[in-house]
Amino acid sequence: MSTRYRKKPLAQFEQGTRIYAPSGGETRYRIVATDPGTGRRFSTKATGEAAARAKAHEIERRLAGATPVHAITDERSRTVRVLADRYVSDHLPNLSLRYRERQEYLLESWILPVVGDRPLTAWTPAESMAVLASVRNAGRSAALVQDVGATMRALVTHARRLRWLGPQSDDPMWMVSYSKRASVQGAGAVYVPRTALPTDDQCDALFLAMVANGEPTWALAMRLKHRTGVRWGELTALQADDVSFDRRTVRVARAVEQGRRSAPTIKGTKNHMTRTTIFPRSLSGDLRAHVDAVTAENGPTGLLFPGRRGGLMRRSTFQQIWIKAADAAGWPMTAPLTRSAGYGDGARGWRWTGSAKWSPHDLRHVAACWMLFDLRLDVAVVAAKLGHHDPAFTMSVYVAPRGDADEAAMAATEDW
């Protein structure tokens, strides 16, 4: 819609048709509606308010009696599962692979088993709460509860866009609370306390364990992640010419995307912007030697941390390295390290399973806390180094009152 029509409509009708008064030199009234079959908007114009209202009423009658291409004539057979199929086919194709797979997982694992066979018009807030209760009862995180709730809200929004739920329909998410709540006064709901992360000594033990396990390159990669805060996909997409030793910076210009059923590919960064981040002088020597070796073998665009066969490293392959090193470093394990027959002969033929208390992504949190509290960089600078879209998000994740907030505030007022 052009800028001159971005204002409150003169009139709005039950099927969503709206009338906008002329402005900006335009002499005709504009009537805007949405096709229930495709979800696309269309518009027409009329001279005079009376003619515009007549045209709007005509469109409303057509919309009320229309049978969209994808509509099901029997409302009782229009279930939440049918809505989910439309949501996946209409909304998800243009989004990232990992986001699509995440949404499909939330639908198939949590939402549809509870409400999938319910007629859409019979879906109630109590049933939505039952979905969230099933996630909580399974002992899953508050973040997953929020993701499931947000996906159900997206389903309801899509149903209204399709006119499968009308303006007068009951809202299946009415008064359903699913957002995370802060557990610390003054902290954000997504707050990650530094005390919940591995210490530098524990991280050093992990890196040494990787070296002892015959993975010095990945020990260096984790040391780099531990201070730069790059995401996993950004780390595995780094090239030799992305590292500048004059300024001790790493350019983050691309990332690896990998789905559960597809090979990894190169794409843009999460926010589609190039940024630089930092690393300490203590890392320069080992990193320079590695960059020089990669450049000599594969040129300046060679991958710094490739997979075993020279291609993009798979997350599942690295997970084997991670859990073995975490166990050897004495990290708390949430699932014991076990091995089963895999491929080939000898030690390479074993497949390792297990789960450590901390994941590779936690090293990104460690890096953020290092920048904020040890280097004392400004929050806006740290947000830029981490690739956050807003410094306020960085604040909400990492900053909260520490110690006795009242005592600290009182001490600050002594000389005033």
TrEMBL record:
Any one GO biological process: DNA integration
Keywords noted in UniProt: DNA integration, DNA recombination, DNA-binding
The UniProt record lists the keyword DNA-binding: yes
One Pfam assignment: Phage_integrase
UniProt xrefs under PROSITE patterns: TYR_RECOMBINASE (PS51898)
Tyr recombinase domain mapped to chain residues: 192-411
GO MF term (any one): DNA binding
Stored SUPFAM superfamilies: DNA breaking-rejoining enzymes
Membership in a protein family: Belongs to the 'phage' integrase family.
PANTHER family in the record: PROPHAGE INTEGRASE (PTHR30629), PROPHAGE INTEGRASE INTS-RELATED (PTHR30629:SF2)
Protein name, as recorded: Tyrosine-type recombinase/integrase
Organism: Iamia majanohamensis
